[in-house]
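Q: what does this look like with manganese (II) ion bound?
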Amino acid sequence: MYTVCRLVTAVLLAATLAACSPAQEPESTPKPEPLTGLVAGLASGLVQVVDLTQPLNAETPIIQLPPPLANTPGFTPHLISNFDADGPGWYWNWMEIGEHVGTHFDAPCHWISGRDLPCVDVLNADEFIGPAVVIDVTAAVSDNADFVATQETIESWEAENGRIPEGAWVILKTGWGARASDGELFFNADDSGMAHYPGFGLESATFLTTQRNILGVGTEAVGTDAAVGAIADPPFPNHFTMHGAGKYGLTQLANVDQLPATGAVIIATPLKIEHGSGSPVRAIALVPAS
Ligand code: MN
């Protein structure tokens, strides 16, 4: 009797569960996956990848600070083995490099104004990807190598292209990347040794850090500040302002001339160097085919 009761109970329970289960969902179109369009675009060529990175070699130009300030070493490769007695089946190197050599990322902790703010290792990875805003000042730079971006530079770009989106990388397009393989042209020093190259300054940095919410700024030159920033107050005012506000820098970018004013996405991922003030990056941009 006990067994029969248990069986009846089980059948009733099953029937109850079946009655309570939700009605069969009607057939619906599958929910679009957010990355399906990206993968299809990469395969079809509708999304192109632009390499924003300069090559790293012994000639890669590095910033030159005047004495008594210390300078960074550049890039030096050291061979470990090359299919020889030291490694018959493999080729590999180790390298000597500063954090701020070649195409690289500046973290907030790089600057005294941001010394208590994050270094590269503790930044969230979603901070490395953002829409690209590309401000073309090539014409102004061809007249004036000491061009410094101002609030007006940003506002006149916005008048044509719309407001800078949240989380953007703001890139100054100057044509300077064409000089990157020649240190003399890249620094463009005068007889006194003073370098002349374009970049951001106090006004643009103040506007971008207080009136807009960006990831950071990028340039084609050796630093995010224009060369004249070295003798400004505070020195290197874009660094001082950006990093003090927790924002980032990208420098020595390549192929900026291949970026549209809007519509591209930049991915720039620094190495996860513990307490690293910056890091070389392989910066790329996803660009819609024109
Ligand atoms: Mn740097």
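The chain has one domain: 47-288. The chain has a mean pLDDT of 92.
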